[in-house]
Known about the structure:
Layout: E1 2-11, H1 24-36, E2 43-55, E3 60-69, E4 74-84, E5 89-99, H2 105-108, E6 114-121
Antiparallel strand pairs: 1-2, 2-3, 3-4, 4-5, 5-6
Amino acid sequence: MLRRSITYQRIIVNYQDMFQISDPVLRNAAVLNVTFNQQLDRIQEGLTGRIKATWWNKTLEGELLGVWNGNRSDFFVRPSLAYVFTDVWKGFIGWDIFNGRRESFYCFFQPMTAFFVEIRATF
């Protein structure tokens, strides 16, 4: 079983609080820009992690990976399973989950939370 966990910290050098802009049109555009670039806070701290395990002579793999942003309490999680059918064919099934507060990076992607299935051929 593979387990990894890493804490991270980002510091925005030329940080400006975009919520203080008085013009509402300019403020909305600026907030959208800093949200998309993950620069809502001067210092961003969080945790990333990955757990992976294999079973049945390495034909079945399970994985859970994720990112949590401590400042905004938003997160991304991807649970997935993979099965090796043959030396060429491999199947995947999983779920991308985005969630968080309204003004957060992963809440921005929340409408794209999705279930996925993939069949891959490797020659």
